[in-house]
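Listing 4. Sequential folding, example run.
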Amino acid sequence: MKVTLENSIGLIKEVKVGFSWTTFFFGFFPALFRGDLKWAAIMFIIAVALGIVTAGIGTWIGSVIFAFIYNKIYIKELLEKGYLPASEESKRKLASCGISVKAA
Protein backbone atom coordinates (compact mmCIF):
# COMPACT_ATOMS: atom_id res chain seq x y z
CA MET A 1 0.00 0.00 0.00
CA LYS A 2 1.40 3.39 -0.98
CA VAL A 3 0.52 6.92 0.04
CA THR A 4 1.29 10.16 -1.74
CA LEU A 5 2.70 13.02 0.31
CA GLU A 6 3.14 16.59 -0.90
CA ASN A 7 4.94 19.54 0.64
CA SER A 8 4.10 23.24 0.41
CA ILE A 9 6.12 23.87 -2.77
CA GLY A 10 4.54 20.94 -4.60
CA LEU A 11 7.24 18.30 -4.22
CA ILE A 12 5.51 14.91 -4.24
CA LYS A 13 6.79 11.71 -2.65
CA GLU A 14 5.12 8.34 -3.00
CA VAL A 15 5.91 6.28 0.08
CA LYS A 16 5.12 2.67 0.86
CA VAL A 17 3.29 1.99 4.12
CA GLY A 18 3.88 -1.17 6.12
CA PHE A 19 6.60 -3.81 5.90
CA SER A 20 9.73 -2.71 4.03
CA TRP A 21 11.00 -5.55 1.89
CA THR A 22 13.86 -3.41 0.64
CA THR A 23 15.06 -2.76 4.19
CA PHE A 24 14.67 -6.46 4.96
CA PHE A 25 16.90 -7.52 2.07
CA PHE A 26 19.27 -4.56 1.78
CA GLY A 27 19.55 -3.21 5.34
CA PHE A 28 20.47 0.47 5.56
CA PHE A 29 20.81 1.06 1.80
CA PRO A 30 17.14 2.04 1.15
CA ALA A 31 17.40 4.76 3.81
CA LEU A 32 20.67 5.92 2.27
CA PHE A 33 19.15 6.09 -1.23
CA ARG A 34 16.14 8.01 0.09
CA GLY A 35 18.48 10.61 1.54
CA ASP A 36 17.56 9.66 5.09
CA LEU A 37 21.14 9.79 6.33
CA LYS A 38 20.28 9.81 10.03
CA TRP A 39 18.42 6.49 9.92
CA ALA A 40 20.89 4.99 7.46
CA ALA A 41 23.67 5.70 9.96
CA ILE A 42 21.62 4.34 12.87
CA MET A 43 20.83 1.13 10.97
CA PHE A 44 24.45 0.74 9.89
CA ILE A 45 25.79 1.19 13.41
CA ILE A 46 23.27 -1.30 14.82
CA ALA A 47 24.08 -3.82 12.07
CA VAL A 48 27.80 -3.51 12.74
CA ALA A 49 27.33 -3.79 16.50
CA LEU A 50 25.09 -6.85 16.17
CA GLY A 51 27.44 -8.35 13.61
CA ILE A 52 30.44 -8.01 15.90
CA VAL A 53 28.63 -9.51 18.87
CA THR A 54 27.15 -12.44 16.93
CA ALA A 55 29.93 -13.11 14.39
CA GLY A 56 27.89 -11.66 11.51
CA ILE A 57 24.59 -13.47 11.99
CA GLY A 58 23.05 -10.67 14.05
CA THR A 59 22.98 -8.22 11.16
CA TRP A 60 19.81 -9.99 9.97
CA ILE A 61 18.16 -9.37 13.33
CA GLY A 62 18.45 -5.62 12.82
CA SER A 63 17.20 -5.90 9.24
CA VAL A 64 14.11 -7.82 10.33
CA ILE A 65 13.28 -5.35 13.09
CA PHE A 66 13.81 -2.28 10.90
CA ALA A 67 11.81 -3.87 8.06
CA PHE A 68 8.75 -3.69 10.28
CA ILE A 69 9.26 -0.11 11.51
CA TYR A 70 11.32 1.88 8.98
CA ASN A 71 8.56 2.97 6.58
CA LYS A 72 6.51 4.32 9.49
CA ILE A 73 9.53 6.20 10.83
CA TYR A 74 10.24 7.66 7.38
CA ILE A 75 6.63 8.80 6.89
CA LYS A 76 6.51 10.43 10.33
CA GLU A 77 9.70 12.36 9.59
CA LEU A 78 8.31 13.54 6.25
CA LEU A 79 5.16 14.73 8.02
CA GLU A 80 7.32 16.60 10.55
CA LYS A 81 9.15 18.27 7.65
CA GLY A 82 5.88 19.68 6.33
CA TYR A 83 4.62 17.02 3.95
CA LEU A 84 0.89 16.36 3.95
CA PRO A 85 -1.22 13.64 2.35
CA ALA A 86 -1.97 14.62 -1.25
CA SER A 87 -5.44 13.04 -1.15
CA GLU A 88 -8.12 11.93 1.26
CA GLU A 89 -7.33 8.33 0.33
CA SER A 90 -3.71 8.78 1.46
CA LYS A 91 -4.94 10.38 4.68
CA ARG A 92 -7.23 7.41 5.35
CA LYS A 93 -4.44 4.92 4.66
CA LEU A 94 -2.15 6.71 7.11
CA ALA A 95 -4.89 6.79 9.75
CA SER A 96 -5.54 3.07 9.28
CA CYS A 97 -1.84 2.43 10.01
CA GLY A 98 -1.91 4.53 13.17
CA ILE A 99 -0.15 7.58 11.74
CA SER A 100 -1.89 10.81 12.72
CA VAL A 101 -1.79 13.75 10.34
CA LYS A 102 -2.00 17.29 11.67
CA ALA A 103 -4.30 19.69 9.86
CA ALA A 104 -2.67 22.12 7.47
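-- end of first protein; second protein begins --
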Amino acid sequence: MESYKIPAKTRIGHVHLKVADLERSLAFYRDLLGFEVTMMYGSQAAFISAGGYHHHIGLNTWHSRGAGRADQNSVGLYHTAIVYPTRKDLAILFKRLYASGYPLTGASDHGVSEAIYLDDPDGNGVELYWDRPQEQWPHQADGSLEMYTRALDIKDLLSEIEK
Protein backbone atom coordinates (compact mmCIF):
# COMPACT_ATOMS: atom_id res chain seq x y z
CA MET A 1 0.00 0.00 0.00
CA GLU A 2 1.26 3.47 -0.89
CA SER A 3 2.26 5.77 1.96
CA TYR A 4 -0.29 8.43 2.88
CA LYS A 5 -0.23 11.43 5.20
CA ILE A 6 -3.46 12.97 6.41
CA PRO A 7 -3.82 16.66 5.35
CA ALA A 8 -2.32 19.07 7.91
CA LYS A 9 -5.56 21.02 8.34
CA THR A 10 -7.63 17.93 9.19
CA ARG A 11 -9.28 18.19 12.61
CA ILE A 12 -11.49 16.14 14.89
CA GLY A 13 -15.03 17.42 14.37
CA HIS A 14 -16.86 16.06 17.41
CA VAL A 15 -17.12 13.28 19.92
CA HIS A 16 -20.35 11.41 20.58
CA LEU A 17 -20.71 9.85 24.03
CA LYS A 18 -23.06 7.17 25.30
CA VAL A 19 -24.38 8.34 28.68
CA ALA A 20 -26.65 6.78 31.30
CA ASP A 21 -28.63 9.89 32.22
CA LEU A 22 -28.97 12.74 29.72
CA GLU A 23 -29.98 15.40 32.26
CA ARG A 24 -27.06 14.49 34.54
CA SER A 25 -24.66 14.78 31.61
CA LEU A 26 -26.15 18.12 30.59
CA ALA A 27 -25.68 19.37 34.15
CA PHE A 28 -21.97 18.61 33.73
CA TYR A 29 -21.26 19.65 30.12
CA ARG A 30 -23.75 22.52 29.84
CA ASP A 31 -24.14 23.87 33.37
CA LEU A 32 -20.62 23.30 34.73
CA LEU A 33 -18.36 23.44 31.66
CA GLY A 34 -20.50 25.99 29.82
CA PHE A 35 -21.31 24.28 26.52
CA GLU A 36 -24.47 25.46 24.74
CA VAL A 37 -27.23 23.07 23.65
CA THR A 38 -27.69 23.41 19.89
CA MET A 39 -30.31 20.68 19.53
CA MET A 40 -32.23 18.16 21.58
CA TYR A 41 -33.22 14.89 19.95
CA GLY A 42 -36.24 14.15 22.07
CA SER A 43 -35.29 13.02 25.58
CA GLN A 44 -32.61 10.64 24.28
CA ALA A 45 -29.87 12.87 22.86
CA ALA A 46 -28.42 16.34 23.01
CA PHE A 47 -25.92 18.12 20.80
CA ILE A 48 -23.75 20.77 22.46
CA SER A 49 -21.14 23.23 21.25
CA ALA A 50 -18.91 26.16 21.95
CA GLY A 51 -19.52 29.31 19.92
CA GLY A 52 -22.45 28.20 17.80
CA TYR A 53 -20.83 25.28 15.94
CA HIS A 54 -23.46 22.61 15.12
CA HIS A 55 -21.96 20.33 17.81
CA HIS A 56 -18.66 19.50 19.41
CA ILE A 57 -20.14 16.84 21.67
CA GLY A 58 -23.12 14.56 21.17
CA LEU A 59 -24.66 12.90 24.22
CA ASN A 60 -27.08 10.01 23.87
CA THR A 61 -28.82 7.28 25.87
CA TRP A 62 -29.79 5.17 22.84
CA HIS A 63 -27.90 2.08 24.07
CA SER A 64 -26.82 3.18 27.54
CA ARG A 65 -29.80 4.55 29.51
CA GLY A 66 -29.32 3.63 33.17
CA ALA A 67 -25.97 1.88 32.54
CA GLY A 68 -23.14 1.91 35.07
CA ARG A 69 -20.02 4.07 34.87
CA ALA A 70 -17.39 3.43 32.21
CA ASP A 71 -14.90 0.79 33.33
CA GLN A 72 -11.44 2.35 33.64
CA ASN A 73 -9.76 -0.99 32.91
CA SER A 74 -11.42 -1.84 29.61
CA VAL A 75 -11.09 -0.73 26.02
CA GLY A 76 -12.78 2.48 24.94
CA LEU A 77 -12.32 6.20 25.05
CA TYR A 78 -9.49 7.31 27.37
CA HIS A 79 -10.58 10.93 27.45
CA THR A 80 -12.12 13.72 25.45
CA ALA A 81 -9.72 16.66 25.21
CA ILE A 82 -11.22 20.15 25.10
CA VAL A 83 -8.86 22.96 24.05
CA TYR A 84 -9.40 26.42 25.54
CA PRO A 85 -8.23 29.43 23.53
CA THR A 86 -6.11 31.02 26.27
CA ARG A 87 -4.43 30.22 29.56
CA LYS A 88 -6.76 32.71 31.24
CA ASP A 89 -9.80 30.77 29.95
CA LEU A 90 -8.38 27.60 31.52
CA ALA A 91 -7.74 29.45 34.79
CA ILE A 92 -11.32 30.73 34.89
CA LEU A 93 -12.64 27.21 34.36
CA PHE A 94 -10.31 25.78 37.01
CA LYS A 95 -11.61 28.35 39.52
CA ARG A 96 -15.21 27.40 38.58
CA LEU A 97 -14.51 23.70 39.05
CA TYR A 98 -12.79 24.32 42.39
CA ALA A 99 -15.65 26.50 43.63
CA SER A 100 -18.18 23.80 42.68
CA GLY A 101 -16.23 21.11 44.53
CA TYR A 102 -16.15 18.94 41.40
CA PRO A 103 -13.44 16.28 41.85
CA LEU A 104 -10.36 16.44 39.64
CA THR A 105 -8.24 13.43 38.69
CA GLY A 106 -5.12 15.45 37.86
CA ALA A 107 -3.49 18.69 36.72
CA SER A 108 -0.35 18.63 34.57
CA ASP A 109 2.12 20.75 32.66
CA HIS A 110 3.11 18.89 29.49
CA GLY A 111 5.51 21.51 28.12
CA VAL A 112 3.36 22.01 25.03
CA SER A 113 0.20 22.51 27.09
CA GLU A 114 -1.26 22.79 30.57
CA ALA A 115 -4.12 20.49 31.47
CA ILE A 116 -6.76 19.72 34.07
CA TYR A 117 -8.19 16.19 34.22
CA LEU A 118 -11.54 14.99 35.54
CA ASP A 119 -14.21 12.40 34.82
CA ASP A 120 -17.71 13.21 33.63
CA PRO A 121 -20.64 11.70 35.57
CA ASP A 122 -20.43 8.50 33.50
CA GLY A 123 -16.72 7.98 34.21
CA ASN A 124 -15.56 9.21 30.79
CA GLY A 125 -12.23 10.99 31.10
CA VAL A 126 -12.16 14.69 30.23
CA GLU A 127 -9.02 16.77 29.65
CA LEU A 128 -9.40 20.55 29.71
CA TYR A 129 -6.32 22.33 28.39
CA TRP A 130 -4.70 25.18 26.51
CA ASP A 131 -1.78 24.90 24.10
CA ARG A 132 1.28 27.07 24.57
CA PRO A 133 2.32 28.91 21.41
CA GLN A 134 4.22 26.47 19.18
CA GLU A 135 7.42 28.51 19.38
CA GLN A 136 7.48 27.82 23.16
CA TRP A 137 7.21 24.04 22.83
CA PRO A 138 10.22 22.20 24.27
CA HIS A 139 12.47 20.26 21.89
CA GLN A 140 15.24 17.74 22.28
CA ALA A 141 18.75 18.36 20.92
CA ASP A 142 17.82 16.59 17.65
CA GLY A 143 14.84 18.96 17.17
CA SER A 144 12.13 16.43 18.02
CA LEU A 145 9.35 17.41 20.39
CA GLU A 146 9.94 16.83 24.10
CA MET A 147 6.64 16.51 25.94
CA TYR A 148 6.66 15.68 29.63
CA THR A 149 4.30 15.45 32.60
CA ARG A 150 4.98 17.72 35.56
CA ALA A 151 2.71 19.08 38.27
CA LEU A 152 0.68 22.07 37.08
CA ASP A 153 1.48 25.27 39.00
CA ILE A 154 -2.10 26.09 40.02
CA LYS A 155 -1.15 29.32 41.81
CA ASP A 156 0.58 30.60 38.67
CA LEU A 157 -2.36 29.48 36.51
CA LEU A 158 -4.82 31.38 38.73
CA SER A 159 -2.67 34.53 38.50
CA GLU A 160 -3.89 34.76 34.87
CA ILE A 161 -7.33 35.84 36.14
CA GLU A 162 -5.86 38.96 37.73
CA LYS A 163 -3.94 40.10 34.62
